[in-house]
TrEMBL record:
Gene: yidC
Location of this chain's protein in the cell: Cell inner membrane; Cell membrane
Domain Membrane insertase YidC/Oxa/ALB C-terminal: 367-547
Lineage of the organism: Bacteria, Pseudomonadati, Pseudomonadota, Gammaproteobacteria, Lysobacterales
Organism: Dyella choica
Transmembrane segments annotated in the record for this chain: 367-387, 430-453, 473-490, 511-533
SUBUNIT field: Interacts with the Sec translocase complex via SecD. Specifically interacts with transmembrane segments of nascent integral membrane proteins during membrane integration.
A GO molecular-function descriptor: membrane insertase activity
Similarity field: Belongs to the OXA1/ALB3/YidC family. Type 1 subfamily.
Chain spans, region Disordered: 29-55
Protein name: Membrane protein insertase YidC
Record-annotated Membrane insertase YidC N-terminal domain positions: 65-354
Alphabetical list of HAMAP family matching this protein: YidC_type1
Membrane-topology descriptor: Multi-pass membrane protein
Annotated function: Required for the insertion and/or proper folding and/or complex formation of integral membrane proteins into the membrane. Involved in integration of membrane proteins that insert both dependently and independently of the Sec translocase complex, as well as at least some lipoproteins. Aids folding of multispanning membrane proteins.
Pfam family, one: YidC_periplas
Length: 557
């Protein structure tokens, strides 16, 4: 069969990829652990900020306040004015079903011990009063809600020092937006100039161990293969990322950046602090709470120093993004923020595929239908190339009697046999390698689409029809993998094995559909849908080409 190399290569790549991912999951680097409990935002927080510290950690009683818009529900702790919870109201933990019509929204920022993730900010001063992310602020009310017809909502937190320095930390939320504006305003009521810096940081616990109800759910969960760690961007250094396991090995140390951002990424969602476009910041990373056995990883942006004269006012601004990785949105929020959509090494193919799919989805309203239309477009674009593949296969099939005769003539003399076969191929203008050319398109599309389905939040929980409620998850009833297996078997039946193929390879080819069936059981159903439809298109094209070939006169003996 002329598709032997295609099947063998896909099988090898697929098995190797699954083995590598499983090895990384089971034996990859893990943070050290000891039997102790972690403190949460206490004044004794170890290593929180070598130069970012203050004596206001325990002054007063903190409270939690709730802030709601149409897309976000935040919880702000008045200790430090940190955002300790963020619920993304339009993204649910699980798809809606009859049993569970109202699943909980995704919680990105979280003050729970296992999945701790907090957006912190503050001020530091070498010789003046300044509230860091542990100081106690005061709020006018416990609940804030964006009213109907209101486009923006301000939440003010106040802190006052006995010296006369007053700080107002204002969060501004906007309708339909995951961007939160932060303004730290300093009113210097003291008798001397205030000198200090503003900082923003994200503090995150490592990925909590996932809990699965069965083996299929565990092996088919593609989210555990996505990048989980810190990232940053500056116009000078461009996009960089650092896994939590590498925070101790290669820490980020006072990296200068003008107009950049720092972020913590996970599958589908991220939190990012974005500095002013012209502000000269310094980025750094550190690990805190190590001795408790529950380390937290901090990535920080420290702004440039500024001064406030007595009786004067100044402020430091920034933006916080807590939401989904939507490319069109991220491009507008900050330069390079769309790079957090991690398509891996095949970004060159994944980005155009995502763009075409998005256009097709807008036209059809269904991501599954968009995938089917993408298959048809690709098959139209590669029609001539695929025809060349099938023509080569048909020529090889018709040459089989003559190749069998060569086998009888040369017996076990493999060298003469190969020479005779090459002369025959040259005489009949047959290229045995023609079947490999479509791989140049097929393999990049396969892995590019895999990354699109794995990392595009738009396809998360995107339904198709019937039993498929999530194109980014495995087919729950294995219908698509079975369909693709049937298509592969039909292709084998229509096109016998290549003349001259080794008997061991022929036996392997018989088991190839079953091998693919097992591999595709765990792949996203959207990817299997792509290959099932693509296989049907190739099968029809193969049938049509064979009819043409059978109508042509046979090769001369």
């Amino acid at each position: 069969m002329n598709q032997t190399r295609t099947f063998l290569l896909f099988a090898l790549l697929g098995v190797a990829y699954l083995l590598f991912q499983q090895w990384e999951q089971d034996y990859g680097p893990k943070p050290p652990a000891t039997a102790a409990t972690a403190t949460q935002g206490s004044s004794s927080e170890p290593g929180a900020t070598p130069t970012i510290a203050g004596g206001n950690a325990s002054a007063g009683t903190a409270q939690l306040i709730t802030v709601s818009t149409d897309v976000l529900r935040l919880t702000i702790d008045t200790r430090g004015g940190s955002i300790v919870r963020s619920e993304l109201l339009q993204y649910l933990v699980a798809p809606r079903t009859k049993k569970d019509p109202n699943p909980a929204p995704i919680r990105l920022l979280d003050d729970g011990d296992a999945d701790y993730f907090s957006a912190q900010s503050g001020l530091v001063s070498a010789d003046g009063a300044a509230p860091d992310h542990r100081a106690i602020f005061q709020a006018a009310q416990a609940n804030y809600e964006l009213a109907a017809g209101q486009d923006a909502l301000n939440v003010d937190l106040n802190w006052t020092d006995a010296s006369g320095v007053k700080v107002t930390k204002r969060y501004t939320l906007h309708r339909g937006s995951y961007v939160i504006d932060l303004d730290q305003q300093i009113d210097n009521g003291s008798g001397k100039t205030w000198d200090g810096q503003a900082y923003r940081q994200l503090q995150r616990a490592d990925r909590p161990p996932a809990v699965y109800s069965n083996f299929l759910q565990r092996i088919s969960d593609q989210s555990r293969y996505g990048f989980y760690g810190a990232a940053w961007y500056s116009p000078e250094e461009k996009f960089k990322k650092l896994e939590f396991g590498d925070f101790k090995k290669t820490p980020l140390q006072d990296q200068p950046a003008t107009g950049g951002w720092v972020a913590v990424m996970q599958n589908y969602f991220l939190g990012a602090w974005i500095g002013p476009a012209k502000e000269a910041d310094k980025f750094s990373s550190t690990v805190v709470n190590e001795e408790t056995g529950k380390p937290r990883y901090v990535i920080r942006s420290v702004g440039q120093q500024f001064s406030v004269a007595p009786g004067q006012r100044a402020s430091s601004s920034a933006q916080l993004y807590v939401g989904p990785k939507l490319p069109d949105v991220l491009e507008k929020v900050a330069p390079g923020l769309d790079l957090t959509i991690d398509y891996g090494m095949l970004k060159l193919f994944a980005v155009p595929l995502h763009g075409v799919l998005a256009l097709l989805q807008k036209a059809t309203g269904n991501w599954g239908v968009a995938i089917i239309l993408l298959v048809l477009l690709i098959n139209l674009a590669t029609f001539k190339l695929t025809n060349a593949q099938f023509e080569s296969a048909n020529k090889m099939r018709k040459l089989k009697p003559r190749i069998d005769a060569l086998k009888e003539r040369y017996g076990d003399d493999r060298q003469k046999m190969q020479q005779a076969m090459m002369e025959l191929y040259k005489k009949e203008k047959v290229n045995p390698a023609a079947g490999c050319f479509p791989l140049l398109i097929t393999i990049p599309i396969f892995y590019g689409l895999y990354y699109v389905l794995r990392d595009s939040v738009e396809l998360r929980q995107a339904p198709f029809f019937g039993w498929i409620h999530d194109l980014s998850a495995a087919d729950p009833y294995f219908v698509l993998p079975v369909l693709y297996t049937i298509v592969m078997l039909a292709q084998q039946w229509m096109m016998p094995a290549q003349p001259g193929m080794d008997p061991a390879q022929q036996k392997m080819m018989k088991f190839m559909p079953l091998m693919f069936a097992v591999i595709f059981l765990f792949f996203p159903s959207g990817l299997v849908l792509y290959y099932a439809v693509n296989g049907i298109c190739r099968l029809l094209q193969q049938w049509w080409m064979m009819r043409r070939a059978d109508a042509a006169p046979p090769a001369a003996a």
